[in-house]
Design a protein that fits this description.
Layout lengths: L3 E8 L3 H12 L4 E4 L9 H4 L4 E2 L5 H11 L6 H22 L25 E2 L5 H14 L4 E4 L4 E7 L2 E9 L2 E12 L20 H9 L3 E2 L4 E8 L21 H5 L3 E4 L18 H15 L2 E4 L5 H4 L1 H9 L8 E10 L2 E3 L11 E3 L4 E2 L12 H16 L23 H16 L6 H22 L5 H22 L22
Parallel strand pairs: 1-2, 1-8, 2-5, 8-15, 14-16
Antiparallel strand pairs: 3-4, 6-7, 7-8, 9-14, 10-13, 11-12, 12-13
Helix pairs in contact: 1-5, 1-11, 3-4, 4-11, 6-14, 12-13, 12-14, 13-14
The structure holds flavin-adenine dinucleotide.
The site of flavin-adenine dinucleotide (FAD) has 41 residues, from helix 1, helix 2, helix 5 and helix 11.
Length: 511
């Protein structure tokens, strides 16, 4: 077994992992960044559309919007860290270091956009495909950095721990596991979309960092708060074109489209959002998502009507996606809610420290407290950037120690190929039915039972193998259990955790 040491090990190459690597390298640390993917498209960061919110000259207003979107459940101290650092970090890293060319208006000032539940224009963007314009330069910059080594196509499987301290991780190395020993380890593994049948996240979003941290004994929090985006393209809608040979069916129609005036209509052509919320289409995400689901169920489909804006001019990237798929966007784009963001994760402090010594978590796999029960649009890239940088700086400066690492060998080549696939189908069905947009105590109890059994079946195999698909399934089943358990233990119907038997958070005025 080969042996590798580094000052800081970063797991994941989205915006949070990149920022952590940058922060640690700027402090003089050697950094090894491992990532499951070979292409940037494997990270949610690459797919981000709307942009990056900043405070501009009104941090208090930004803070108020974040707290309101979370129904007052976000942690105020964490929100202060975000809004107070937003302008400087975005200018220093994105504008000055990476040279991101954010859109400007005629006066050469930034062209700030507005999205749902923001009370003013404060979102920097590049068309409606901001993610790739941030992510690609970030990876290029780190590739060229002499203190950073990026290892593509390398999944971390388990953390290496000794006497309550984290000393790195075991990563894939062919059929075996290879330990990488680190002074500090930063988890930046992104979201949990693969737990649900419909998601905006890329494949492989199996909650690996959350599961690895939980297995090692770290605290996780707020896992019940799973955010669904209200407007992903609905490839199953009656008016959707026949789409068998197109990839990426569930692409996102960014909140910015509604921010610029698009309306939601049901299959009868009725605009329904004003009946549910005073802010209509710009109500908080959880409200819009549940309402879209309800109207879709009742009438057959929901369409995003872009006629109030100049869609072609304002959203050329989305127009191209529609045209590629043969969607007749001028008569309305069929949309449905899709899993989008995990507000909970590994519990961390204001510098990304987890509850285990020398372990950090940043970005979507971390629970900083910024989002509480519901995330305000376009705050996630910013959170990954702010916490990533802070955690990276903090993680630099510890010497790596070589300790005994778990011995992970592939001893069972007979595992059926479709084992992981079948289990994933079961897991997603349970999550969709009982732990999705609307939950009931009975349903959550049922989900918990099924998921426990499923995890038991998977554990029996994982003891002897290192296959990535099996580890992903293990991580997904642990993360699913964490979501179901947290949801079952929380009687408060708030934000993304909506209990159908609880107080109606979105009843139609005349219901
Ligand atoms: C379609 C879409 C649009 C969005 N639009 C916006 C927006 O406009 N503004 C905004 O603020 N947010 C937006 N979001 C949310 C935001 O993009 C994500 O929350 C954010 O990018 C997460 O960054 P991250 O670095 O934490 O994770 P990611 O960018 O998802 O990166 C995770 C990384 O971890 C790696 N990884 C995972 N497991 C392992 C493992 N076991 N071993 C090694 N590597 C591993 C993955 O390969 C990947 O490189 C959007 C999300 C989506 C999906």
């Amino acid at each position: 077994m080969s042996e590798h040491t580094t000052d800081v090990l970063v797991v994941g190459s989205g915006i949070a992992g990149c920022a952590a690597a940058l922060g640690a390298a700027r402090e003089g640390a050697s950094v090894t960044l491992v990532t499951k993917t070979t292409r940037p498209e494997g990270a949610s960061t690459w797919w981000a559309q709307g942009g990056v919110a900043i405070s501009r000259d009104d941090p208090e207003g930004f803070k108020r919007d974040i707290l309101d979107a979370s129904s007052g459940t976000a942690n105020e101290d964490a929100v202060d860290v975000l809004v107070e650092n937003a302008n400087d970090v975005v200018r220093n890293v994105l504008v000055e270091t990476l040279d991101v060319d954010f859109d400007t208006g005629d006066d050469a000032e930034f062209d700030y956009s507005r999205e749902a539940a923001h009370d003013q224009r404060r979102i920097l963007h590049v068309d409606a495909s901001t993610g790739k314009h941030v992510h690609v330069p970030f990876l290029n910059y780190l590739d060229a950095h002499d203190r950073v080594t990026i290892r593509d196509d390398t999944a971390a499987l388990d953390l290496v721990t000794h006497e309550g301290r984290v000393h790195g991780a075991v990563v894939e190395d062919g059929d075996e596991g290879e330990p990488i020993f680190a002074g500090a380890t930063v988890l930046a593994t992104g979201g949990i979309g693969d737990l649900y049948p419909r998601t905006t996240n890329p494949d492989g979003s199996t909650g690996d960092g959350i599961a690895m941290a939980a297995l090692a004994g770290a605290d996780v929090a707020d896992m019940e708060y799973v955010q669904f985006h209200p407007t992903a393209f609905d490839d199953e809608a009656p008016s959707a074109p026949d789409s068998e040979d197109t990839a990426d069916q569930s692409f996102l129609l960014s909140e910015a489209v509604r921010g610029e005036g698009a309306l939601l209509r049901n299959a009868d052509g009725e605009r329904f959002m004003p009946d549910y919320h005073a802010d209509a289409e710009l109500a908080p995400r959880d409200v819009v998502a549940r309402t879209v689901a309800r109207e879709r169920e009742a009438t057959g489909e929901v369409l995003l009507d872009t006629s109030p804006l100049d869609f072609a001019a304002e959203f050329p990237d989305l127009l191209e996606k529609c045209e590629d798929r043969g969607i007749d966007w001028e008569t309305g784009i069929p949309v449905a809610p899709a899993e989008h963001f995990c507000c909970g994760g590994v519990a961390v402090d204001d510098r990304g420290n987890a509850s285990l010594d020398r372990l950090y978590a940043v970005g979507e796999c971390a629970r900083t407290g910024v989002h509480g029960a519901n995330r305000l649009a376009s705050t996630s890239l910013l959170e990954g950037l702010v916490w990533g940088l802070r955690a990276g700086e903090d993680a630099a400066g510890f010497d790596p120690t070589v300790v005994e690492a778990p011995d992970l060998l592939n001893r069972d080549p007979e595992l059926p190929d479709n084992f992981a696939r079948e289990k994933f189908v079961r897991l997603r069905r349970v999550m969709d039915e009982y732990v999705g947009l609307e939950r009931t105590p009975d349903g959550l109890g049922r989900a918990h039972g099924v998921l426990r059994r499923l995890k038991g079946e998977v554990d029996a195999y994982v003891r002897t193998r290192t296959s990535r698909s099996l580890y992903e399934l293990r991580n997904a089943s642990i993360t699913a259990l964490l979501v179901a358990r947290a949801a079952a233990e929380n009687d408060d119907s708030v934000g993304c955790h909506y209990l159908a038997d609880g107080e109606p958070a979105q009843a139609r005025a005349d219901d």
